[in-house]
Write a structure and sequence with these properties.
- The protein has about 120 residues and is mainly α.
- The chain has two domains: about 80 residues, no CATH class; about 40 residues, no CATH class.
- It is about 45% helix and about 10% strand.
- The protein has a two-stranded parallel sheet.
- Helix 4 packs across helix 5.
């Protein structure tokens, strides 16, 4: 089973500077119209600094995964809670691994595993 949880970028409205905003600071990525077969020559940081490019890429990736029998989820804001809740739910039925480098995932995993058990 394949799961993907993402943040819907265009609806994100956070006051504190997020990691994505810090990474993109000072970079004004141009909106790029692209297709699956197109090679994008922009640097990743510039490309993803534009919320429209990022959302288009997420939607395209989600379609590809769904066509290959993977379930995808999209969060309205921060995807961490959705990722952890989905992993905990999946673990009830099958072996599940949650892979990530964000310590928030570990904290949330501890919380939701205890409260759901």
């Amino acid at each position: 089973m394949c799961l993907m949880a993402t943040t819907t970028c265009l609806q994100r409205t956070f006051t504190p500077l997020t990691t994505h905003q810090k990474r993109a600071a000072g970079k004004a990525g141009a909106t790029v119209t692209f297709t699956e077969n197109m090679k994008v020559t922009l640097k990743k940081d510039y490309f993803l600094a534009n919320p429209k490019n990022k959302q288009w890429f997420i939607n395209m990736l989600s379609r590809f995964l769904q066509e290959n029998n993977c379930t995808t989820y999209h969060a309205e804001g921060d995807a961490d809670v959705l990722i952890v809740k989905t992993a905990v739910e999946s673990a009830r039925e099958r072996n599940t691994a949650l892979v990530g480098d964000d310590t928030d995932l570990l904290v949330l995993l501890c919380f939701y595993t205890r409260s759901d058990s």
